[in-house]
Amino acid sequence: MSTTSFTLAPGPEAPVAQASRSGYAPPPVKTAAARRPWKPWQRVLFRVGFPFFILLSLPSDLGWYKNLFTIDWLHGHYRDVYDIARFSPSFFLKGGAEGGAPALLGYDKWFIALGISLVVGLIWTLLSRKKEEYEVLYYWLRVLVRFRAGIGIIGFGFTKVFPTQMPYPSIGLLNSDFGDMTAQKIFWLQIGIVPWYQVFTGVVETLAGVMLFFRRTTFLGAALLLGALGDIVFVNFAYDGGVHVYSSYFVLLAAFLMVQDLPNLYNLLIREQYTVPRHYSPQFKEAWLRFTRLGLKVATIGIFLVYLTYLEYLNFTYDPYKQPAQKGLAELRGLYNVAEFRLNGQVLPYSPLDSVRWQQATFEKWTSFTYKVNRPHKLDLSNGGGAAMRDINRTFETTGLAGGQRVFYYDADPQTHTLYLQSKVLTGKRGRRGQAEEGAGKTTSQVRGSSIPAGHSNGYGGDYGGSYVGGKEAEQQAKYQASLAGWISPEALARIGDETLKINPAALSTRRERGIKAEQKPEKRDRMTLTYRTTDGGRHVVLRGLNERKDSLYVVLDRVDRRYTLSESTLSAGQY
After folding, report:
1. Cα 48 to the chain's mean position, in Å?
2. pLDDT tens-digit profile of 120-132?
3. Which of 223, 214, 216 is nearest to 251 (CA)?
4. pLDDT tens, 434-474?
5. Taking all residues of the chain, what is their mean pLDDT, rounded to a whole number?
6. Residue 96 φ then ψ, to 5°
7. CB 267 within 8 A of CB 9
8. Half-sphere exposure of 525 toward its Cβ, with a 13 Å CA cutoff?
9. Phi/psi at 380 (5° precision)
10. For residue 451, which of 307, 325, 575, 365 has the smallest C-alpha distance?
11. SS3 sequence of 257-305
């Protein structure tokens, strides 16, 4: 409110020093800032704005609180802290931060908050007409918004400081047709190919958050946040990025924090008057209040700067959240032409129009196998984010990509040289965002604690991936193991090993352990079982077995040593 800031004018309360020949006037004698009465319209506006920003700044989803109180702080995962930072108003409704009424573009939760605030403001005005100012409440509201915006944007920024939000394109994506990609996919990839620029944007966002932790740098932090996130809002609308509501959320908080100092800037820069900002701030006389204030600030900085930095480093180095974490088979990695393709013993000659024969194939450096065929599949419009712990649910390779590119996750039995492959795209009826649903005509049942793709949101910015697990874990595990029994033998499963442990021990966490168990459930996916054999020093790979339709398959792959004009950066996530 402008009532908390004013320029000094000649008078007994605020003497003005005379300017010297240089034109500079030394600071006047400091006087105590009086808490002046507010104008009637300011008081009414505050009575509406106060509950509105309270509703926007406090989490309103039970999942957020369950996650908070079940975090294993000694064995943390970056997503534990990230989910504390990343929330926006949901009011316990389905649809998450970006869901809601299409006509309102996902901003329906804001209108709900505004409607509640108008009612509260009306009642407040009727009951408190004699109150002349709200300096104390305004101060603490700004503190709440400052720290909410600061914590949130730091969580957002760290996924760019350690560039995992927009991964470098996989071999399969590098060899996909440009015209088969959505605008959102193209934008994310163009940031992914220049990770140092991604780091720069993360530093800007993180710096804005840090500045919001301190009262004296709040305006600068808010201005930086407004500029950085304002651009992201426009990018999301232009490229259909899907997170326009959450980025708009920070723009709104930043604009609110800047309002207090705008009159000062106007007087200083436009009217060219000597201006001294005067804002109310409480003076804590009791020692315990001073130590409590200091302790809370130190704890906030410790968790969201120091601890989160450590967790983000582990995630970037060993378990980047959008890429599979496990190493793929080193002898198979690369791009291949399909030299020979036999289906049920019949040779299918190459044809770009063939809807069955593979055209090219790739083995990534992680546990993904892709092949291209002239048969389109339904498009997943999510951004491949979320909190998936299992490699099979990390879908950045498939999202936003049309055409005939099929992506499979594989488990490898090293003794028998057998690949057990499962499609990363669920089969069955597709949901609104392109994710498959189990059963005809009904939404997939979500298990609390699972971490499936980003289209399934819990309302606080992620999915149901939390540090907590549902109460039917044993029953779910039994069903999952039963679903594998008819496909993979117990001996092969023992040789394949536990996915939970297939990363560097430094990155092991309770979140990963719980998340993998929660995601292990019977699902409808295309499956293939193929044996592999390399010849000529790995120049050729022979695959044989059964495809997803239980047809006999025999494929000979010829390695292609393609040199890309695009060179991969040394700043690369994961260890493979």
Report:
1. 31
2. 999 999 998 888 8
3. 223
4. 444 433 333 333 333 323 333 333 333 334 344 444 557 78
5. 84
6. 70, -170
7. no
8. 25
9. -95, 115
10. 325
11. HHHCCHHHHHHHHHCCCCCCCCCCCCCCCCHHHHHHHHHHHHHHHHHHH
For residue 489, give the amino acid letter.
S
The amino acid occupying position 366 is: W
Cα Rg of the chain, angstroms: 28
User: Cα–Cα distances in Å, from 57 out to 147, 264, 505, 546?
Assistant: 9, 26, 37, 53
**Cα–Cα distance measured from residue 265 to residue 277, given in angstroms and rounded to the nearest whole number:** 9
Distance CA(352)–CA(363), nearest Å, equals: 21
Residue 574 region by backbone torsions, left for phi larger than 0, else alpha for psi between -120 and 50, else beta: left
Give me the sign of the Cα torsion angle 455, 458, 461, 466. negative
CA 295 to chain centre: 29
The amino acid that residue 529 corresponds to is: T
98 token code pair: 């970006």
Residue 484's SS3 state is: helix
| Contacts of 344 by beta carbon, 8 Å cutoff, 6+ apart | 551, 552
Whether the predicted pLDDT of 34 surpasses 80: no
Structure tokens at 143: 């503190």
Q: Distance (Å, rounded) from C-alpha 309 to C-alpha 317?
A: 12
Question: For residue 342, which phi and psi values (nearest 5 degrees)?
Answer: -120, 130
**Phi, psi for 95 (deg, rounded to 5):** 115, -20
Task: Give the whole-angstrom CA distance, residue 221 versus residue 208.
Answer: 4
pLDDT of 557 reads 96
* H or E element that contains 180: none
Question: What does each C-alpha distance from 71 to 78, 102, 152, 225, 369 come to in angstroms?
Answer: 11, 34, 18, 29, 34
Q: How many CA atoms lie within 13 A of 186 on its CB side?
A: 12
Token representation of residue 138? 């305004």
List, in order, residues 6 or more apart from 482 with CB less than 8 Å away: 522
Task: Tell me how far apart the alpha carbons of residues 388 and 383 are, in angstroms, rounded to a whole number.
Answer: 13
Percentage above 70 pLDDT, the chain: 84
Instruction: Name the helix (H) or strand (E) containing 326.
Output: none
For residue 304, give both structure tokens: 């969201």
3-state secondary structure labels for all residues of 370-432: EEECCCCCCCCCCCCCECCCCHHHCCCCCCCECCCEEEEEEEEECCCCEEEEEECCCCCEECC
CA distance 91 to 112: 9
> What kind and span of H or E run contains 543?
strand 540-546
SS3 content of the chain, % helix, strand, coil (to 5): 45, 10, 45
Nearest to 150 by CA among 85, 82, 56: 85
d(CA 164, CA 199): 10
Which residues, 6 or more positions from 262, have their beta carbon under 8 angstroms from its beta carbon?
2
Q: Which DSSP helix (H) or strand (E) runs through 336?
A: strand 334-343
**Dist. CA 171–CA 434, nearest whole Å:** 23
- Cβ atoms of 374 and 352 within 8 Å: the answer is yes
Query: Hey, what are 115's tokens?
Result: 């409607």
Taking Cα atoms as reference points, which of 6, 554, 562, 560 lies closest to residue 280? Answer: 6
Q: Is the pLDDT of residue 10 over 70?
A: no
At 96, is the secondary structure helix, strand, or coil? coil
User: Which structure tokens are listed for 537?
Assistant: 């020093």
Place of tokens 């023992």: 494
Q: Using CA atoms, how far apart are residues 429 and 294, in angstroms rounded to an integer?
A: 54
